[in-house]
């Protein structure tokens, strides 16, 4: 099977997966109690508007006055054409809301991902090559601590210690402080620590377990017998074969950091990123915004898995497209 045909099949399955995810999300929102109409009418009333007119306007904007099948068809067509609708809770288009939110998520998610990968894999490989030593036990303890501690509790504890008691760092995120500034870096320290702690622990456990399969392998012993230094043995003969199964963990780790962890982290530290945007959209029943924030992680997951499968064949030439 050629690579082009393999990629085409994967892309086709990606389209089907995206369609199913969006359909399920739309169905759940359609049957969920509360539709945001009351909140929209209340906001209009507080501003001196007519409540009945506000309800009619809401129905017209969201298409609630149309049959469910028509609403579903129109919405799926709009999603495919990147016309993702209007957010009535933010009074702006959904695309503008996403464009305004994603830089804040990237500001802490990118360094957290880099730190978790580098330190997690490094500690795991070191523990595997120094099994049953004091550093191995220390690394294992750190891994269990990072996995066991809930992110929301850990974030609150860090705020109480370093923001409230010591006053070293801000307790919540404040916009308008620039990107490449010391003030912005200080308020990103705690979110990065909270988000990367659990990821480092997970990467450490998986990399240690995978590396242990090759530490005492015959080809590793042969490389040492031929005079290969420890660094070459670690990188070329242990880490590279162990990296093949770790690619799956890497994609899941990035998704967990960007979205699963973003909900908790951004709510605790009030970071106006994708997680907080999606959380507020769900609470306020902003259907268009919920659908859009659902599509972003779905798209990243699908593209990530496609890149992951192609990377398998680069890391291990024995893997053939036809076998998959």
Within the CATH hierarchy, at the fold level, what is the topology of the largest domain? Answer: MetI-like fold
Overall mean confidence score, pLDDT? 79
> What's the CATH first level of the largest domain?
Mainly Alpha
Number of domains as seen in the coordinates: 2
Shape: flat
User: Main beta sheet: strand number and arrangement?
Assistant: 2 strands, antiparallel
- Secondary structure category: mainly alpha
Low-pLDDT runs? none
Task: Kindly report the spatial arrangement of strands forming the biggest sheet.
Answer: 1-2
List the helices and strands and how they pair.
Elements: H1 3-31, H2 37-46, H3 51-62, H4 68-80, E1 86-87, E2 92-93, H5 94-129, H6 134-148, H7 151-165, H8 182-215, H9 218-225, H10 230-269, H11 274-283, H12 287-315
Antiparallel strand pairs: 1-2
Summary keywords:
2 domains, transport, mainly alpha, flat, 324 residues, MetI-like fold, two-stranded antiparallel ribbon
Give a written overview of the molecule.
The structure is a single chain. A hairpin with a 4-residue loop joins strand 1 and strand 2 (92-93). It is flat, with a radius of gyration of 24 Å. It folds into 2 domains: 3-81, no CATH class; 95-284, MetI-like (MetI-like fold, Orthogonal Bundle), CATH 1.10.3720.10. It has a two-stranded antiparallel sheet with strand order 1-2. The chain has 12 helices and 2 strands; from the N terminus they run H-H-H-H-E-E-H-H-H-H-H-H-H-H. The chain is an all-alpha fold. Helix 2 (37-46) packs across helix 3, helix 5 crosses helix 8 and helix 6 crosses helix 8.
């Amino acid at each position: 099977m050629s690579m082009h045909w393999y990629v085409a099949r994967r892309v086709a399955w990606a389209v089907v997966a995206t369609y199913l995810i969006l359909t399920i999300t739309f169905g759940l929102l359609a049957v969920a109690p509360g539709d945001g109409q009351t909140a929209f009418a209340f906001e209009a009333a507080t501003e001196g508007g007519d409540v009945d007119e506000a309800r009619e306007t809401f129905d017209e904007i969201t298409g609630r006055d149309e049959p469910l099948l028509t609403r579903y068809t129109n919405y799926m067509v709009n999603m495919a054409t990147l016309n993702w609708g209007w957010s009535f809770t933010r009074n702006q288009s959904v695309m503008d809301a996403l464009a305004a939110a994603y830089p804040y998520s990237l500001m802490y998610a990118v360094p957290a991902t880099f730190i978790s990968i580098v330190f997690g894999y490094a500690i795991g490989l070191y523990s595997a090559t120094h099994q049953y030593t004091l550093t191995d036990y220390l690394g294992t303890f750190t891994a269990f601590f990072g996995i066991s501690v809930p992110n929301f509790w850990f974030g609150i504890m860090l705020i109480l210690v370093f923001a409230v008691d010591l006053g070293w760092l801000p307790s919540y995120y404040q916009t308008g402080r620039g990107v490449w500034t010391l003030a912005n870096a200080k308020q990103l320290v705690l979110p990065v620590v909270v988000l990367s702690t659990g990821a480092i622990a997970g990467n450490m456990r998986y990399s240690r377990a995978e590396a242990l399969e090759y530490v005492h392998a015959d080809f590793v012993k042969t490389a040492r017998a031929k005079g290969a230094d420890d660094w070459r043995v670690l990188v070329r003969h242990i880490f590279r074969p162990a990296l093949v199964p770790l690619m799956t963990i890497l994609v899941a780790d990035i998704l967990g950091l960007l979205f699963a962890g973003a909900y908790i982290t951004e709510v605790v530290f009030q970071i106006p990123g994708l997680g907080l945007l999606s959380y507020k959209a769900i609470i306020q029943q902003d259907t268009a915004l919920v659908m859009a924030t659902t599509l972003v992680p779905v798209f990243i997951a699908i593209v990530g898995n496609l890149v992951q499968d192609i990377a398998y064949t680069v890391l291990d030439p024995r893997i053939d497209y036809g076998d998959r």
